[in-house]
Amino acid sequence: MRAVHHLTVPRALHPGAWWLWSLGMAVAASRTRNPVLLALILAVTGFVVASRRSDAPWAHSYAAFLKLGLVVIGIRVVLQALLSTRSQGNTVLFVLPQIPLPGWASGVKLGGEVTAEALITALYDGLQLAVMLCCIGAANALASPRRLLKSLPGALYEMGVACVVALTFAPQLVTDARRVRAARRLRGRTRGSFRTTAMPVLEGALDRSVELAAAMDSRGYGRTAQVPRHQRRLTGLCVLLGLLGILLGVYALLTDSMAFPLAASALSVGVLLAVGAMAVGRQRVTRTRYRPDPWALPEWLVVASGAIAAAAMATAAARGVSGLVLPGPLVVPPAPLVPIVGILVGLAPALVAPPLVKRAVA
Amino acid sequence: MIEFDRVTVTYDGATEPALQDVSFIVPEGELALVIGRTGSGKSTLLRAINGLVPHFTGGTLTGRVLVDGRDTRDYRPRDLADVVGMVGQDPMAGFVTDTVEDELAYSMESLGVAPDVMRRRVEETLDLLGLADVRDRALTSLSGGQRQRTAIGAALTSHPAVLVLDEPTSALDPQAAEEVLAALQRLVHDLGATVVMAEHRLERVIQYADRVIEVPGGSAAVSTGLPADQMVTAPVAPPVVELGRLAGWSPLPLSVRDARRAAVALRSRLDTSAPVRPAASLGDELARCTDLVVGYGNVIALRGVSVSIRSGEVVALMGRNGAGKSTLLNALVGILPARSGTATTAGADPRSTKPSKLVKAVGLVPQEPADLLYAATVADECASADSDFRVTPGSCRALLTRLAPDIDDRMHPRDLSEGQRLCLALAVVLCGAPPLLLLDEPTRGLDYGAKRRLVEILRELAAAGHAVVLSTHDVEMVAEVASRVLVLADGELVSDGETATVIAGSPAFAPQVAKILAPLPFLTVGEVATALERAS
């Protein structure tokens, strides 16, 4: 067996595998509002992140996504409390002062009675969204989006670099803004204006991007083989249409808003178009890739575990297995066996993903 | 290898050419050093080598630039990437990827080098530049010297015949600069690379150069020649050369070692005399730190520093990149909070003082002088500084004219050269006439002339009862101006004392004159000149 297939030989897992796994977990979360299952998904992703993340700066992003999730839940609950009606149930918890609204907004009620059912439903809805966010956060922490962009097919390379550069500039802007704000004190000013804060930051960013463009140009960025113009246009069109198809398909599959065959065919046509365009576009690209991440047994296993979790939840939802959707907000949430086993399969990466390379810090 | 044939560059909208009628040849395997004042066109010359001028910057280039037989007229920078490796002034600004290894491979990927060759060259380059320990670290977590070496490595891996470097050691501490220069030295000697490099800090690099290209700026002709010949007349010269000129040595020594051998007679002449140093007349205490601890996140930048600054002294703050110099300065103006201990400026906690009151007590010129500048023209900037500090209109402009006489009122602050921008920021801060003046690395990008003017101004301020604290890597500047030196290492104060006692004894911090004349206690060429006058 080659070394890349070993589960215990330390190396970094292919970023694509992490993203597919976490998408699988997100799909699983999208199929249920049962808080027990959602909490289980959160625990599973959290455990995998804790056991397999590196010490790179982006590996700390999971906590940020957790906080974001809490904010989402908070907003959801507060809004529901403000706009609560008795449509979900009659258990009134407390009464907020009601704000009278003009006649044209007669369907909307602001304040007034707040029912337990409404709040619990909002809590569960928010929880679902938060858990899906955390799945994305897990992918972020395990494999930075930059590394994922590195594995883009050759034809999309230039777009990928643009994204990478944008990703670097956002945090840089924050540091710059902080520095400029500190410098304002030195001019004896207490309050800032657009001119004294945004201008230096934006000017600095512009300077830096020109500098970077010069550096990239002198390092051979954009060297391409000659191809006829109409072929280049055709490739571009195919890529766009393909991406559109994929987007449509994924959206439909996640939200159940389209019939399954329609969604699946949109997805597959999109994939076909995109793959074709990449194959044609590749002729134009003369670049090579340094140490591409291998795709071997551990990657397959990680992706499979995510897929099993998603499939278990999706079939359970399609078959109408009880426990995915609660009969009412105020019942004790049940713990259905099959979905739980499915989600627990998602834990596999904590075992099958190779451990990280430990290097002595110099 | 590189041939400039009657090259003239004029940028769009400029009335005068940035370079005029430049002709020279750099043969293969040489290390050519480009010298000249700030803003004289050194960067333009370097960027013309790989075609960034005029392909990327715009403007008109007449004449011909040939690199390895290729005319930059027909080749864009990206098509010259396999021949010319370019390292810009700020390595961080040129990084495309986020880890050392990926950065080293980037140019090769663009050039389509086969994967196994790439892997081999990356490993070789990691060893050549001593980067193997940090190979998978994020670029943002590297020290200044490591970043610069990574940038050089990234330009090297595609095995270009020519390596072009714009001020590779300006922002580095002496130790890191030595690392970088040693690496360059190996490239030239072992690999036969042709290196063209611009640098203000001649004292660090002149001894390694095979050829000097002097860009005087304006319409004066660019001249080239052997370093020893060029240095006889060059307006910018390191202390070792100035000492040689003073003592009338011929041929002019370029390294401390050569100068030491030539200096036997001078040493015996100076044997009986001692340098005259005006004693600083110390006044009231202006700032004090007691057991100051400052940190960011879980990194502690200062651990228990106690310092007192009194009026009338010029204090130099030295130490490695990341030793805590900027942190100490920032804590003194209240930008950073103290974790424990206290920092007091003018008898009060700077964090709770109102900014408008604080600027009357202390002024800081930050490492990025541009942070202080908001206006669209130099004139506006001066006017707004006058109103910020509530001084009579025109005082900022008057200060600026003294610091840098030839700055046009209508220029945008960002279009000024780095040195001019610093002068502007300095004028803005100085016009509040704060008793305590803090400068964070004021000599970066300054040529010898501008440094000399800065030294004069700092001396005047100290004589008028101000206190100046400057953080710097420039030992020659410290020797000229500082009365006291603090050395920080890893957030702790490791030495604090008179300039002569602190820097003369240390191999890293000793200025060239001290190394040449040791064990005599001279630090600067000026001191030697005065002593010789008194002796005769």
Structure, explained:
The complex is a heterodimer of chains A (362) and B (536). By secondary structure, chain A is mostly helical. Chain A contains twelve helices and two strands; from the N terminus they run αααββααααααααα. A two-stranded antiparallel ribbon of chain A has the order 1-2. The longest helix of chain A is centred in the middle third of the chain and has 30 residues, at 157-186. Chain B is an alpha/beta fold and 536 residues long. The mean pLDDT of chain B is 87. The interface between A and B is large, with 51 and 74 residues.
Summarize the structure.
The complex is a heterodimer of chains A (362) and B (536). Chain A has helices at residues 15-30, 35-52, 61-83, 116-142, 145-150, 157-186, 194-218, 229-255, 260-282, 297-319, 337-345, 349-352; strands at residues 92-99, 110-115. Chain A has 362 residues and is mainly α.
List keywords for this structure.
heterodimer; A: mainly alpha; two-stranded antiparallel ribbon; 12 helices; 4% strand; B: 536 residues; alpha/beta; Rossmann fold; six-stranded mixed beta sheet; 22 helices; 21% strand
Number of helices of chain B: 22
Mean pLDDT of chain A: 83
The share of residues in helices of chain B is 25-40%
What share of the residues of chain A does DSSP label as strand, in percent? Answer: under 5%
What's the multimeric state?
heterodimer
The total domain count of chain A is: 3
Strand order of the largest sheet of chain A: 1-2
Cα-based radius of gyration of chain A, to the nearest Å? 25 Å
State the end-to-end CA separation of chain B: 51 Å
| Principal-axes shape call of chain B | globular
Class of the largest domain in chain B in CATH?
Answer: Alpha Beta
Helix content of chain A: 55-70%
CATH architecture of the largest domain in chain B: 3-Layer(aba) Sandwich
- The share of residues in extended strands of chain B comes to 15-25%
**Sheet having the most strands of chain A:** 2 strands, antiparallel
**Low-pLDDT segments of chain A:** none
What is the overall number of helices of chain A?
Answer: 12
Please give the number of β-strands of chain B. 19
Coarse morphology of chain A = globular
